[in-house]
Design goal:
alpha/beta, four-stranded parallel β-sheet, 13 strands
């Protein structure tokens, strides 16, 4: 039986977000399963009273996340390869807690949805006053950018922090438990810098941006892409980075190689001689490079973004239920 959508038109939560949360909750509780068919955009419009553009927006966001597939002529289907991970014990415990809270506030004569708005506001203020979520990366700008991406995907406030400032978390961790996120490449380095018992270090996945994919796609067959790393990064996970490029661009007839940084003059020589056709300078090194080198068309840096679909285990471990 198709799920029902109950859109509260006077709620401060936008209708498209209500649709998204309704579907996620149905997946959590087992009301929806892989392969199930959802009501069409037109049916949801008719049932809920919201415009089809709002319904389409919600469905498209869930399709981008990997939860739904919109097939022309076949309707909307829950993906057969769901990336959405659930912890049934945690779901049952959360449902029990919700019922207990609703029972208590009903007994007090309060309206559940109104109390929920108050609880949400109090929770937001608490989380803002005592920041418990951080994303750590090599530079402040990169950390802020990816923290924003995770915050948007998980709908929580996550602060970005440069790797060089991670020690400041030791003092905060002594007062309360914390969740520190970082990408898989930096996980070992972050773990070695902060080892407080109150800190849970959680690796999240990254993926290449559309811009990087287009940079590689523009290369001719047989082109050489050289990825330049700082010596410590080259020794620690140069092989992992090389494998990631090779796996992602396996269909492209391009050769990838990873080297450690030598000199700027040597990098320019390689470009001029044709020893490489695209030079990818790591984010740790990028800001140290001269502007004339960074302006060259054959020079770029790794452009990666948070991969929500591949970070589902991290979401649960961070305590993000919905």
């Amino acid at each position: 039986m198709p799920i029902k959508f109950y859109i509260e038109l006077h709620s401060p939560i936008p209708p498209h977000a209500q649709i998204i949360d309704r579907i996620k909750l149905a997946l959590l509780t087992g009301e929806l399963r892989a392969g199930d068919t959802l009501p069409s955009i037109r049916d949801v419009e008719r049932e809920s009273g919201v415009s089809r553009n709002i319904v389409r927006r919600a469905y498209l966001e869930l399709e981008a996340y990997g939860l739904l597939k919109l097939k022309h002529g076949k309707g909307v289907i829950v993906s057969d390869e769901l990336p959405y991970v659930t912890d049934q014990a945690l779901v049952l415990l959360s449902q029990k807690l919700c019922r207990e809270v609703l029972s208590k506030i009903t007994a007090l004569g309060l309206v559940g949805s109104s109390f929920a708005r108050m609880l949400y506001s109090v929770a937001i203020m608490d989380e803002r006053s005592q920041q418990r979520f951080f994303y750590v990366d090599v530079t402040e700008a990169l950390a802020q950018e990816r923290a924003e991406q995770i915050s948007r995907a998980w709908q929580v406030t996550i602060a970005g922090l440069a790797l060089e400032k991670i020690k400041m978390l030791e003092e905060v961790a002594a007062q309360m438990p914390m969740k520190v996120l970082t990408n898989f490449y930096r996980y070992g380095e972050v773990s070695s810098l902060i080892g407080h018992l109150n800190v849970d270090i959680i690796p999240v996945a990254l993926k290449f941006t559309k811009e990087t994919i287009e940079e590689i796609d523009r290369l001719r067959e047989g082109s050489i892409v050289e990825i330049v790393l700082e010596e410590r990064d080259f020794s620690s996970y140069g092989g992992l980075i090389l494998a990631n490029y090779q796996r992602t661009f396996a269909a492209k007839k391009v050769k990838f190689k990873v080297t450690s940084m030598t000199t700027v003059a040597e990098l320019k020589r390689k470009l001029k001689s044709g020893d490489c056709h695209l030079l990818v300078i790591s984010n740790r090194l990028w800001d140290k490079m001269p502007e004339d080198l960074k302006r060259l068309k054959m020079v770029t840096r790794p452009k990666m973004e948070f991969d929500a679909r591949a970070s589902e285990q991290a979401r649960l471990r961070a305590g993000i239920i919905l």
